[in-house]
Specification:
The complex is a heterodimer. Chain A is mainly beta. In chain A, the strands form two sheets. In chain A, strands 2, 4, 5, 9, 10 and 11 form a six-stranded mixed sheet that branches. Chain A has a five-stranded antiparallel sheet with strand order 1-3-8-7-6, with no helix packed on it. In chain A, strand 6 and strand 7 form a beta hairpin. Chain A is globular. In chain A, 34% of the residues are buried. Chain B is an all-beta fold. Classes of the chains: A mainly beta, B mainly beta. The interface between A and B is medium-sized, with 23 and 28 residues.
């Protein structure tokens, strides 16, 4: 079945690193994604990782993938107040439509 | 970059009426459109997938007669909530495949907040 879990809430201070975790169930997923959603808005793609990779770094963002444990994490370095938002991980299923299954979302609050 | 324009952004309607939500892909052709529903403080639940010129594929538990999806052209898909009731109040988001960044180029609309009174 398709089930993607995340912790619900994370609070950090400005300048600290944030780590958002995600577990997924479909081992056949080719890509895994991280999206950001600001209040009342759609989703913005932050980064993605191919399933045969262990790590991907993109400026302040680092994605780690443990395929054996089906665990994905997103690290945001030097977190800023503008990073406050909801973060969703998603797995891309290898179905005919390549649909996305989203995690439960993690609300990140960055305080000054 | 690729843009999906979703309208309206907010709508309030009376119980029993129908509401249409439009998603247009600008500057690219969206052969596949996904429609999601998001409850407050919850994740996005896929409702249906539509391909241009064919019938939509609905996820289990989604009433296809209540949530009518039309994907008549490569740039326009619509979701009509028929005979809306307060429990249909939610945030609806569309996503087009192709044209965006990343694998498969998913591009999301900005969402529609539906309130049924």
């Amino acid at each position: 079945g398709e089930d993607v879990e995340q912790s619900l809430f994370l609070s950090v201070r400005e300048g600290d690193s944030s780590v958002i975790n995600c577990t997924y169930t479909d081992s056949s997923s080719t890509y895994l994604y991280w999206y950001k959603q600001e209040p009342g808005a759609g989703l913005q793609l932050l980064t993605y990782i191919f399933s045969n990779m262990d790590m991907k770094q993109d400026q302040r963002l680092t994605v780690l993938l443990n395929k054996k444990d089906k665990h994905l994490s997103l690290r945001i370095a030097d977190t800023q107040t503008g990073d406050s938002a909801i973060y969703f991980c998603a797995e891309g299923l290898n179905t005919g439509f390549q649909k996305l299954v989203f995690g439960t979302g993690t609300r990140l609050l960055v305080s000054p | 970059g690729a843009v999906v324009s979703q309208h309206p952004s907010r709508v309030i309607c009376k119980s029993g009426t129908s509401v249409k939500i439009e998603c247009r892909s600008l500057d690219f052709q969206a052969t596949t459109m996904f429609w999601y529903r998001q409850f407050p403080k919850q994740s996005l639940m896929l409702m249906a997938t539509s391909n241009e010129g064919s019938k939509a594929t609905y996820e289990q538990g989604v009433e296809k007669d209540k949530f009518l999806i039309n994907h008549a052209s490569l740039t326009l898909s619509t979701l009509t909530v028929t005979s809306a009731h307060p429990e249909d109040s939610s945030f609806y988001i569309c996503s087009a495949r192709g044209g965006g960044v990343g694998p498969y180029g998913y591009t999301f609309g900005s969402g529609t907040r539906l309130t049924v009174v």
